[in-house]
Amino acid sequence: MANTRTPLLADDRRDAETSSDTLSDPEEDILRGQSRATQVGRSWPSRLRESLLFAWALLATAGVLVLAVWASHLQQTSFDEPAGKRNLIFMVSDGMGPASLSLTRSFRQYTEGLEHDDTLTLDKHFWGSSRTRSSSSLVTDSAAGATAFSCGMKSYNGAISMLPDSTPCGTVLEAAKKAGYKTGLVVTTDITDATPACFASHVDIRSQNDDIAVQEVGNGPLGRVVDLMFGGGRCHFLPNGTEGGCRADNINVVDMAKNDYGWNYIDNRTAFDEFWEGRKEVPLPMLGLFADTDIPFELDRRNQNDVYPSLSEMAKTALRALEKATEDSDQGFFLMIEGSRIDHAGHGNDPAAQVREVLEYDRAFKAVIDFLEVSRTPGVLVATSDHETGGLSVARQVNANYPQYLWYPAVLANASSSSEYLAHRLHTHIAKTSNESADELTKYIIEELVIPGLGIHDASDEELTALTSNPEQAQYLFAHMISIRAQIGWSTHGHSAVDVNIYSSGGPGAEALRGNVENTDVGKYLREYLNVDVDAVTKELNEKMTSKRKIGMAGQEATIEAADGISTEFEDHWVAHEEMEARRLGIDA
Predict the structure, then answer these.
(1) 393 among known catalytic residues
(2) Most CB atoms closer than 10 Å: which of 64, 74, 485, 558?
(3) For residue 227, what pLDDT band results from cuts at 50, 70 and 90?
(4) pLDDT of residue 363
(5) Which residues pair with 131 in a beta bridge?
(6) What sections of 218-310 are H helices per DSSP?
(7) Which phi and psi (to 5°) does residue 285 adopt?
(8) Alpha-carbon distance 365 to 98, whole Å?
């Protein structure tokens, strides 16, 4: 029989002389909740032992939980240091928000007759999301966004790798070059535009394109830091007054690049094809400027394929060139590739142009993934957006009735030209036919622009009157005609503050970008993966760019007092872009 002070689990209740169906008195007490142990009380050694065991169990459980949480934290935040030679490709989808992916995925499924579960290459490499605010606004611009990527630091809207205290910050590309990596920039916009500029130049405001151009070719505080540049923006490299030039001065930056910094230079599709088709190896450094300003939207470029290379073609050529240049090196390369004009389609609220831009970006992304799979040098691809543009909504309530749960990809498929291209054609036509009557102009708009360009056969009198009365607003009016029929919504012609997606091939340390992170975390990952000293570059820049900071060519600089600070009020880049295009085409803006 059990002793009344023995723990219940140790109680031998089955006495050999007791019947199996008979309970002892102590057992009856237990069933009634009247154990003598509870009535009389246990001895203090017994109670102490049980208390110690209970405390030990609590501590052990707490320890296991703490270790599990810490292990999870380390997995997501620690950096698995890569070893040896490596390549890093960073892709930026300027202005592409999550809705752009939904729009493009459904458009592709419709136009190619694919199943509902068919996805883009980007979808297969979704990694996380990024918060985008700048130091000066909840809604960032591309300059502050790219500074977060290049420097890993927040700055004000308009800043080109400059901080709010008017000091420069070193970039991952500059640090990579100093560490022995080859470097490259591939874009579809002006190569002096905000995103590429933030990796290879330092100016207070993004509109200083002329200064950016001279720094990008090597006339800057660190000398030449880029080995390959493909894109548009040729006019900023040619003197004012010359054909195709838009600089405010008489500096020939192309000649400077070739004569002073050893650049090879090409400016047309024929020359590019020598390298694209593999007939020649690309000599570095290589500067390829294929358009006066921006390379046309992919929707228009595909009809001018003999004039302009595509983003995916330039990306593949750059990858092959940089791999060849580093095959006998201890270091690999860093390449930034930007799908620049997704942003421009958002500014113009043109869904037909945007889906083609995203599809071409997806092709370029796939080209990088394919390259990494066969390359003998380990590498990582990280891709994200600097911000979303347009406040895109993949649905639109077009009247006061109950909203329809649908949108029409066929409307976008019917468009063969961008609203930008059609507006340029209209402006050019008006400039050549100033005495044309309103009826004649309306006939031209219907037969030459709306039907063949937009694929719209039911333009209303109100829409046509708006075009003839306000041709300077033609781009927005053409885009609205497409959007309203497709039932695609927009909330702004500017940027929005929505979080943007991160994509990756995966690789050492990439888990640090899982979940929702700051855009500066992306920049920090880039430097950590390459294992380069960006802080040392920042120190060197601050030593060379003194309190009286000089911007521009040696001998022709403008002096800026750093103590004066920087105004965060600056001209909207899309307005400036439109005004420059109007001047270039001889159109009254």
Answers:
(1) no
(2) 485
(3) very high
(4) 98
(5) 518
(6) 253-261, 269-276, 298-301
(7) -75, 145
(8) 16
Between CA 329 and CA 351 the distance in angstroms is: 44
Token pair belonging to 474 = 């033609």
Q: How confident is the model at residue 31 (pLDDT cuts 50, 70, 90)?
A: very low
**Rounded Cα distance, 231 and 290, in Å:** 6
Instruction: Provide the Cα torsion 511, 516, 520, 524; round to 10°.
Output: -10
The whole model's pTM is what?
0.84
**How far apart, in whole angstroms, are the C-alpha atoms of residue 187 and residue 295?**
9
Q: Which residues pair with 128 in a beta bridge?
A: 502, 515
pLDDT-derived band at 198, boundaries 50, 70, 90: very high
Rounded CA-CA distance 278/260 in Å is: 28
Contact 150, 161 (CB under 8 A): yes
Q: First vs last Cα of the chain: how many Å apart?
A: 105
State the DSSP H helix or E strand holding residue 333, giving kind and residue range, or none if neither.
Answer: strand 333-338
Q: Are 229 and 204 in contact (CB under 8 A)?
A: no
pLDDT at 510: 97
Query: Taking the alpha carbons of 385, 391, 397, 398 in that order, is the dihedral positive or negative?
Result: negative
- Minimum mean pLDDT among 37-41, 294-298, 301-305, 582-586: which range? 37-41
For the record, the structure tokens of 570 come out as: 């600056």
**Nearest by Cα to 193 from 94, 118, 288:** 94
What would the pLDDT profile of 240-261 be if each residue is shown by its tens digit? 999 999 999 999 999 999 999 9
Report the range of poorest mean pLDDT among 21-35, 48-62, 122-136.
Answer: 21-35
- C-alpha–C-alpha distance, residues 501 and 386, integer Å: 10
- The two structure tokens encoding residue 220: 């800057």
List the one residue out of 159, 92, 96, 519 whose CA is nearest residue 347: 96
Buried b (16+ CB within 10 A) or exposed e, 435-467: eeeeeebbebbbeebbeebbbbeebeeebbebb
Strands 87-92 and 333-338: parallel
Q: Which of 142, 340, 418, 496 is catalytic?
A: 142
Residues 6+ apart with CB under 8 A from 414: 454, 455, 456
Place of tokens 């691809």: 381
Decide: 225 and 212 in contact? Cβ < 8 Å.
Answer: no
Can you give the pLDDT at residue 60?
A: 73
* Pairing verdict, β 379-384 and 500-504: antiparallel
Place of tokens 């017994």: 46
pLDDT score for 59: 80
